[in-house]
Amino acid sequence: MKIGNEGLQAIEKLCPKLQSISIKDCPLVGDHGVSSLLSSASSVLSKVKLQGLSISDFSLTVIRHYGKSVINLILSGLQNVSKKGFLVMGNAQGLQKLVYFIIASCWIDVSLEAIRKRYANLK
User: Fold this and answer.
1) How far apart are CA 74 and CA 39, in angstroms?
2) Residue 94 and residue 90: Cα distance in Å, rounded?
3) Which one of 22, 24, 49, 101 has the lowest number of neighbouring Cβ atoms within 10 Å?
4) Which residue ranges form the domains of the chain, and what is each CATH number?
5) pLDDT digit string (tens) for 89-101?
6) Cα angle 48, 52, 58; round to 5
7) Out of 1-5, 14-18, 77-81, 86-90, which region has the weakest mean confidence (pLDDT)?
């Protein structure tokens, strides 16, 4: 079974109190699916892991905007996300509860400094 944007939309509708999501190596999952899920579950979703997906800076903007309850965020192998996407996250008002943030195998450099300065509680 292959999971795509439609699958995430179904999860969003069937699991309104979803607290944790891990999406790994699903090439059919894109910005539309991630944005739909995060915008609807924003009040309770505390742990988000996105790994090996075909998402762009747009999804990081959605996470920044709707991730007010996210405590634990893991982003790995997101090759379509640019430095600008991470800089936008660092200049955000969202992600107010973020404590744990892991980035692996993504295009990053000085953008990490912007994120570190913005979120003093990060470990």
Assistant:
1) 18
2) 10
3) 22
4) 5-9+19-118 (3.80.10.10)
5) 776 677 888 899 8
6) 65
7) 86-90
